[in-house]
Design a protein that fits this description.
This protein is an alpha+beta fold. It has 7 helices and 8 strands. It folds into 2 domains: 147 residues, no CATH class; 50 residues. An 8-stranded antiparallel beta sheet has the order 4-5-3-2-6-7-1-8. Strand 2 and strand 3 form a beta hairpin. Helix 5 crosses helix 7 and helix 6 packs across helix 7.
Length: 220
């Protein structure tokens, strides 16, 4: 299997400039596209990370954007369908379901997109690279990795399980402060203090969130 990972920025991106303005980041999932008339319509799922009030601002921006045809919201996960000019091949190429996405795309706070795609042979990926390089709205394109290797893992998007707001806040705070890094960059005492609850309460909220989320990523 051939794998292509690249860093990208394009001037007509709906999402990245607003994410940069608000200091948010997104895990982005390409769900598909179709063409009708002069336009290409793309469907995507976004899992947004950042401060709650800024996430609300981003969602409101999405609701009002003229290129967003429809939107569905589940907490800080949104599904959108967007409209683009068909002449910009970037969208039909990027959302082409012939490609596999071993991991979600990452739209960072600095306005860049980190995308990984895979295919059985090299040629379609080479053609994809050429289309990105010649795309008239491309402002940055950098290949991070282009190699043949075995598929180690592939992520399939799924909506988050139902967890309470306190559980969600606990696990997001733990992630933000690198509680899950090795070695750990913080501890439960510090996280509980930041959360303004007792250590026991914070631990319970965190463990209940982990109990609901972790099983999604472990095969039974």
């Amino acid at each position: 299997m051939w794998h292509l990972k690249f860093k990208y920025k394009h001037a007509d991106c709906i999402y990245a400039p607003k994410l940069r303005e608000l200091g948010l980041s997104v895990h982005f999932y390409f769900l598909g596209f179709y063409e009708k008339g002069k336009y290409t319509y793309t469907t995507a799922l976004q899992h947004i990370f950042g401060e709650k009030n800024k996430i609300k601002k981003y969602i409101n921006y999405m609701k009002k954007h003229p290129k967003i045809i429809d939107i569905e919201i589940y907490r800080d996960v949104i599904i959108t369908i967007a409209k683009h000019k068909k002449e910009i091949e970037l969208y039909s190429r990027g959302y082409d379901q012939m490609f596999m996405h071993p991991s979600p795309a990452y739209l960072s706070e600095d306005g860049f997109e980190i995308i990984e795609v895979a295919f059985w042979n090299r040629k379609p990926l080479q053609e994809f690279i050429k289309s990105l390089e010649k795309n008239k709205t491309t402002t940055h394109f950098e290949i991070l990795r282009f190699e043949e290797k075995e598929m180690e893992d592939i992520y399939v998007s799924k909506l988050l399980p139902k967890i309470s707001e306190k559980q969600k806040q606990a696990i997001e705070l733990a992630f933000e402060h690198r509680y899950y890094k090795y070695p750990r960059k913080t501890n439960l005492d510090k996280l509980a203090k930041l959360s303004k609850v007792s250590k026991q309460t914070f631990r319970e909220n965190l463990r209940r969130a982990e109990e609901k989320i972790i099983p999604q990523f472990i095969s039974k």
